[in-house]
Amino acid sequence: RFFELPAFSSVRYLMHLDADATLSCKLEGPDPIVELARGGSVYGLFEVGVEDPSYTEGWSGFLEEYMLLHEVEPQVPRPLLTTDGFVLTKEAEDHPGQLINVTADPMAVT
Fold it and tell me: Cα–Cα distance between 80 and 56 in angstroms, integer?
């Protein structure tokens, strides 16, 4: 249903890479996009994680507004998407080695 959104209606392929992702391919190896197209296949990875609140500030509000304005309902029940009230322990940026607790944004699930 993602490709049914107007912003992505003309997209044939989409690849999302995190900033820390790496690809290691051999020059003589097959082109994965060509192989997927040839077989009429789709590859997807669904991974659930909770992002650091400093990376998701404002994300919940954006998602809620977008879904409301575009009449989009998530395919996963909302209670499974929420991280409201989750407390994460992470290292303090200004004090390496010191652990602090931070509260997650309500929809910080990726």
Answer: 17
Tens of pLDDT along 23-71? 777 888 888 778 878 877 766 655 556 677 677 777 778 878 888 898 8
Instruction: Note the Cα 43 to chain centre separation in Å.
Output: 16
CA distance 51 to 104: 8
According to DSSP, residue 89 is labeled E
State pTM to two decimals. 0.40
8 Å CB contact between 87 and 108: no
- In 1-110, where does DSSP find H-type helix? 32-39, 53-56, 59-69, 78-81
Number of helical H runs and strand E runs in the chain: 4, 2
